[in-house]
Amino acid sequence: MSSGPLVSIICLCYNHARFVEEAVQSVIQQTYKNIEIIMVDDASTDNSKDVINGIVKAYPQIKFLPLEKNIGNCAAFNLGFSHAFGDFIIDMATDDVLLPERVEKGVSSLRAAGSEFGLDFTNAEIINESGNLMSYHYPMDGEGKSKVTVPSGDVFANLLGRYFICPPTMMYTRQLVEFLGGYDETLTYEDFDLWIRSSRKYKYAYTDEVLVKRRVVKGSKSYLQFKIGSPDLRTTYKVMQKAKALLQTEEENVIFRKRVFYEIKVAVRYLNFSLARDYYKMLRV
Questions:
Q1: Which of 179, 196, 175 is nearest to 238 (CA)?
Q2: Coil, strand or helix: which one is 259?
Q3: How many angstroms separate the CA atoms of 18 and 27, rounded?
Q4: Whole-number Å distance between alpha carbons of 117 and 103
Q5: How far apart are CA 80 and CA 89, in angstroms?
Q6: pLDDT tier at 222 (50, 70, 90 boundaries)?
Q7: Which residue in 195, 193, 211, 215 sits closest to 203, CA to CA?
């Protein structure tokens, strides 16, 4: 597809030298062609910058923003977004891979859904460092469709209750990102905050196809998210504070309390007793 609205793909790299070329090639090879590529290297300590410079030499249309100081994923995305002109946005880690029709299917989905919808997400292959298939995010039947019911539409309560979206599969409207004011740079990860805040205003569309490969890399930030001492546990708490202010129904209050009790168990499991106490206070206030 050569016409249609501009899609900005913000490719965030941190020590992805082994994977970044495959990631960028998966963007270049999209069936949808009206794409701008913005690459942000967050002060990688491997040779990612050298690899990216080689890619940019071959594809000079790519905007490359190399950073001298590590600023974190949320700030790096915001920097990339400040240079983006697209009507639709993809936040892509450069160890993941887009399948050829990801952008085309996402644009079609969101345009058909209408202005109430701000985000499209899909099923995904989960691959290892070598690119071998490990599993699927949602188990599939023989026709490639999800065996489980995947929520869509007004999903605030679903997102408050449990994790069910594979983050690399998401495509946003520009309006959604502007509504959020970008990512919250005080947080160590963005997904939960984006879901809670944006789903209160926008509906979500689900495309029931595998259109992305999510790579699991040992030692990566997501791999280390649930570890003793992880700052991500405190980020989750901050988002739960935001969620509390957005509750509108008794059903949502019940789901919120269940989620708080779950997070208390997580905090205790990882020996963060001060965080567990803060969650208890959240229930009393």
A1: 196
A2: helix
A3: 16
A4: 16
A5: 11
A6: low
A7: 195
Cβ atoms < 10 Å from Cβ of 107: 21
b (16+ CB within 10 A) / e for 189-215: bbbbbbbbbbbbebbbbbbebbbbbbb
Q: What is the pLDDT of residue 218?
A: 79
The per-residue DSSP string of 3-38 comes to -SS-EEEEEEESS-TTTHHHHHHHHHT-S---EEEE
Cα separation of 185 and 161, whole Å? Answer: 24
Indicate the pairing of strand 133-136 with strand 7-13: unpaired
Cα separation, 222 vs 241, in Å, equals 22
CA-CA distance, 138 to 149, in Å (whole number)?
Answer: 9
pLDDT of residue 225: 59
Contact 196, 242 (CB under 8 A): yes
Answer yes or no: are the C-beta atoms of 207 and 113 closer than 8 Å: no
DSSP state of 140: B
Q: In angstroms, rounded to a whole number, what is the distance separating the alpha carbons of residues 18 and 51?
A: 9
- Which residue matches tokens 């708490």? 237
pLDDT, one tens digit per residue, over 39-65 is 999 999 999 999 999 999 999 999 999
Element (H, E) at 107: helix 102-113
State percent of the chain over pLDDT 90.
93
